[in-house]
Request: fold
Amino acid sequence: MDDQKKLAIIATKGTLDWAYPPFILASTAAALGYETQIFFTFYGLQMLRKDLSGLKVSPLGNPGMPMKMPFGPKWFKEINWNIPNAVQAFVPGYESVATALMKQTIKNNGVASIPELRELCQEAEVKFIACQMTVELFGFEHSDFIDGVEYGGAATFFEFAGETDICLYI
Amino acid sequence: MNFDKELDARGLNCPLPILRCKKSLNEMTSGLILKVVSTDPGSVKDFAAFAKQTGNELLSSAEAGGEYTFFIKKK
Reply:
């Protein structure tokens, strides 16, 4: 089908929050009939690991991230906890706590989890390409990643990207 | 309105209602009607956009008591 629309995404971030845009857009595009491919490079490779528990979110140095509690009475949930960067950097386990709270917020809001979205992408035949250069650079093995991933380089990406209607760098 | 299949997308957020809808339509034959109930306010525009882009016909879109009901005819 030559008139089929195409979407290419380059996914470069390796945090829980930034894992959302590539998987949401790719799965939705596939549902709309786009042929879709995601090229994972640098920290984006984290999203292809069999074990996704390493995906975390940090409010440290991120003034755009509201820190609200996903439980308790309404007045408590509405408080935006303004915790200084110095404290966030100093307290051990702060990032893990923030990640756990974020995951709870995601669940409370009926938002899909990353493993779920990734699976939906695969079901919809979104093609996953891992950048072989960065796989080696970071000391990963192909066995660290889920099945169905293809490995290639920049030229592989352009082969598809050159034919696309939409191309996003995330 | 008569329908052939119903999808309960209550409590789900973007993009899940659309993805589930697509999945349900895949299991249906052309001309059949799918009813979708959602609680995501964003789904009103999303279902219209989904229909426009996929060629499945959005027969109706209505809101009542915080629930959004869509009837979609499979292409």
In short: Residues 13 and 44 of chain A are 5 Å apart (CA to CA). Residues 6-54+113-169 of chain A form a domain with the Hypothetical Protein Ychn; Chain: A, fold (CATH 3.40.1260.10). Chain A is about 40% helix and 15% strand.
